[in-house]
Every structure is written in structure tokens, then in C-alpha cells.
Amino acid sequence: MDSSGILLILIVLNVLVSIKGFNDYSFFRKYQFHMGSIQSGEQYRMLTSGFLHADMAHLAFNMLALYSFADVVLQLMGTFSFVLIYFASLLFGNMLTVFFHKNNYNYTAVGASGAVTGIIFSAILLFPNMPINILFIPIDIPGYIFGVIYLLYSIYGMKANTDNIGHTAHIGGAIGGYIFTLLKAHYVLTDNLFVVVILAIPIIIMFVMAKQGKL
């Protein structure tokens, strides 16, 4: 299957499963991320929750982001590595969520954000200077700077805990994309070592803060 085909399949799966969830609340509840249910043995939710979305805007935003960054990863790493990074990032996002929210049995979440964030960070490692536009900044910024800002904002969001955004899953997804890109594309360590180090710093900060009980 060519690269455009696998991307289309992922987008269609997200759309179909999400629409089913919009119209069938029992289906939505059965397959969403729910901490208590996962700890009771329903680990399938770690995967299925990544194809559900809270509403159409949530779905559209994630699919647009996936479409925007997927081509870099597909072209430079191939279809197999792209799929590996997508699902590894999805699972890393949910595993980090379990780590931080394991005592909140009522914690719920849905969305492909972890997987999509992994693809975004993979693309940044492969093409660090890609121009990225943030709505409130009138100029394009290099991808690696966006990555650092994104991670720092996500850490702030985890600490503040004042919204319904799954910041923990975003960081976990970024870690998944980061690790598996380095495993599959060793040349990044030599060609883009500065970016590899710069992106690692916010991740290290997060774990240090967690160890100190500040998250």
C-alpha cells in the first residue's frame, strides 16, 4: 500500500469510529479511556480511545494536524515506520496518562492527539527547520522551536489542570514519536543532534518535576 493510502485509512477510521461515538453513547463509553475500567482489565481502551473524539471540532483539528505533518514522516521513513510511530505514540500517550492519573479512577479521555503529536515530533526531528505557523504569532517559526514551546505549554497545562485538554497524552505521544524516530532513523542523532538535545530538555524537566511532586 502506498503512503497516501495508509494515511487515508487512518483518517477514515478516526472519522467512522468518532461518528459512531457521537451517535451511540454506549459505544462511546465502552471504548473511551476510563482509568477505572483500564485498571480492571479493559486494556483495549488504551487503543480504542485513540479513535474516538469529543466532538466534530476535536476530530477535525486532529485530522488536519495529522494530514499536515504526515507527509514528512511518510516520505523520509516509509509507511511501516509511519504506522509504527503513530500507534506507539498513541500508546505512549495513554501509558503516561495512566502513570499520572492512576489514582483518579474516574479519569476519562478520548482522541488521537497522542498519536498525532508523535507524528508531529517525528516530523520535527526529521525536518527541524520546517516552517510552522502558530495562530497568535504572525510569522512562521522553525519546527524545533515550536516543539519546545509545545512541550513547555503542555507541562504548564498539566500543572495548572484548568482545562479539559489531555496535556499528559500529548507529552506521552511526543515522547513516543521522539523515541521511535531515533530508533528507526539513527542518522538524526548525528545530523540533528542539537535538535535532539533541545527537545529532550522539556521532557527531562517534566520527569524531574514529577519526581519532586510538582505535577
Concise description?
The protein is mainly alpha-helical and 215 residues long.
Strand order in the largest sheet: 1-2
Count of domain modules: 1
Mean pLDDT, rounded to whole units?
95
Q: What does the radius of gyration come to?
A: 17 Å
Number of helices: 11
The CATH homologous superfamily corresponds to Rhomboid-like
Assign a percent range to the helix content: over 70%
CATH architecture: Up-down Bundle
Class derived from helix and strand content: mainly alpha
Shape: globular
- How far apart are the first and last residues' alpha carbons, in Å? 43 Å
Q: Given this structure, which CATH class is correct? A: Mainly Alpha
The amount of beta strand, in percent, is under 5%
Spans of at least 5 consecutive residues with low confidence: none
Number of DSSP-assigned strands: 4
State the order of secondary-structure elements, H for helix, E for strand: HHEHHHHEHEEHHHH
**CATH fold assignment:** Rhomboid-like fold
Annotation keywords:
215 residues, mainly alpha, Rhomboid-like fold, Membrane associated rhomboid family serine protease
Q: What features would you describe in this structure?
A:
It is globular and about 50 Å long. The protein has helices at 3-23, 25-31, 35-39, 45-48, 56-77, 79-101, 113-126, 143-160, 167-184, 187-191, 193-211, and strands spanning 33-34, 108-109, 131-133, 140-142. Helix 5 (56-77) packs parallel to helix 7 (113-126), helix 6 packs antiparallel against helix 9 (167-184) and helix 8 (143-160) runs parallel beside helix 11. The protein is 73% helix and 5% strand. The protein is built from eleven helices and four strands; from the N terminus they run ααβααααβαββαααα. The protein has a two-stranded antiparallel sheet with strand order 1-2. The chain has one domain: Rhomboid-like fold (Up-down Bundle). The model has no long low-confidence stretch (mean pLDDT 95). It is mainly alpha-helical and 215 residues long.
